[in-house]
Amino acid sequence: MEPLQAATAQPLAVGEIKDPQRNLPRSIILGTAVVTLVYLLANIGYLRTLTIAEIAGTERVAATAAARTMGSIGSAFVALTILVSTFGTTNGNIMTAPRICFAQARDGLFFRRFGDIHPAFETPHISILGQGIWAAILALTGSYSQLVSYAMFTFWIFYGMTVAGLIVLRRKCPDAPCPYRMFGYPVTPVLFVGIAGWVVIFAFISSPLTSTIGLSILLTGVPAYYVWRRWSRR
Fold it and tell me: Which of 78, 112, 188, 189 gives a 20 to 30 Å CA spacing to 162?
């Protein structure tokens, strides 16, 4: 990662990567391949260790399989592995989520202090602190499964909108530079948008109350956007 050269530069995650046109697609492809391989090997191990009935009858398949093969030490090992794996998710969220508030502040759509950059570390420190406080508040308002359900429902909405936006931009701005090549375009993005829509619809059907709450939280951003936009113009 390269440090920001000036305090006025935007500390976006992509902007801090060396040669993002080359390294970002490589990291995504390599990371996805490794995760897919690990999941595939893990499921093969579960099927060779447990029966289908045992897998269906437990909520912690990994811990049950580890206890079967390694005893109580296996269960502790799985719990420790899951705990360590959360560090990667935490790191990704710290690198990306605060930068959303940072960009909003720079555009006049959020508190100005969230657009500040630390003079020594060149990071959006106020935005990171704000995200940490908000995460702590959310942790006190509900269970982990509830928060995950709210987040995953809204995540897939934004995943689909992001990829759909790519299609729109390429149609509206065909001459704009395209630093990233998309394999199978336009079939792959259309397929992804369809899958994202299916996930959202299925989540709403299977958990209507949770999905409605998550969608309601998401929709509160619409009036907030117009309020901040009007205030910034003044």
Answer: 112
